[in-house]
Recover the amino acids of this structure.
């Protein structure tokens, strides 16, 4: 079980529970996570959803060692596109549009695919040790599958972190508006709980429509269409890597791990 699920006081808490692997995401973890979101969305007892992570880090991103599903003999762009459409695009969009407020609690590293878990949440509270990064340009790819970067950070900072691979601190992320609040690491769970409890006292339909108002405004501005088309830009990175090396990414993993330390 990679995901823990709990409901108390109208708050569903979904916990990434793979701390020994820094909550790296394999197919099983993401499928379980999606099931938990669906459960919270459908449970009439639940007013607010909290997404949190066990351990030192929120998520190290996609598990490059795979796991959860057998790897086919020959990797094609069609297979990559199919798997990533489901888990890295449709899942994130679905979570974003769950008609209940959600809060992500982020500590430690949140790398690449980690952003696909917290960006879809309505609010993000970060511990003061949180660091957000998307270093996939090192792998010959233009950014993770779900392009929240430009929306969350604005075009210049989005380009800077993509071009350099550097991590944003929690304070920097708060300054751009990507993070609502930065709190001491020891207070992360209690602060998020207090915020969730406060929101849970509000009328349900008002919350639902407030969320829809903001998301709909972003969609009218092009969010949905941009997310879809940049997903395809992302896939050209995999296509190029496959044509060059026969593998979906370019840089070898050890070099990448060393670079993002
Ligand atoms: Zn990808």
């Amino acid at each position: 079980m990679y995901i823990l699920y709990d409901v108390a006081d109208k708050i569903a808490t979904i916990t990434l529970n793979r701390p020994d692997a820094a909550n790296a995401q394999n197919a099983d973890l993401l499928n379980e996570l999606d099931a938990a979101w669906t459960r919270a969305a459908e449970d009439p007892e639940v007013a607010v959803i909290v997404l949190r992570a066990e351990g030192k880090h929120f998520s190290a991103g996609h598990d490059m060692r795979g796991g959860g599903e057998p790897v086919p003999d020959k990797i094609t762009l069609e297979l990559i596109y199919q798997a990533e459409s489901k888990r890295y695009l449709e899942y994130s969009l679905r979570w974003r549009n769950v008609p209940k407020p959600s809060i992500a609690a982020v500590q430690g590293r949140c790398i690449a695919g980690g952003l696909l878990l917290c960006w879809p949440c309505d609010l993000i509270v970060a511990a003061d040790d949180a660091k957000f990064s998307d270093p996939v340009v090192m792998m010959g790819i233009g950014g993770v599958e779900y392009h929240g970067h430009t929306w969350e950070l604005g075009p210049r900072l989005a380009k800077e972190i993509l071009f350099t691979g550097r991590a944003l601190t929690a304070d920097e992320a708060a300054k751009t508006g990507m993070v609502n609040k930065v709190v001491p690491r020891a207070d992360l769970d209690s602060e998020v709980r207090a915020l969730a409890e406060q929101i849970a006292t509000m009328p349900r339909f008002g919350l639902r429509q407030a969320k829809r108002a903001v998301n709909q405004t972003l969609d009218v501005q092009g969010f949905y269409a941009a997310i879809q088309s940049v997903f395809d830009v992302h896939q050209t990175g995999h296509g190029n890597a496959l044509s060059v090396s026969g593998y979906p990414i370019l840089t070898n993993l050890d070099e990448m791990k060393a670079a993002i330390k």
Notes: Strands lie at 3-8, 11-16, 48-53, 102-106, 109-111, 123-127, 131-133, 168-169, 181-183. The radius of gyration is 18 Å. The mean pLDDT is 94. The first strand starts at residue 3 and ends at 8.
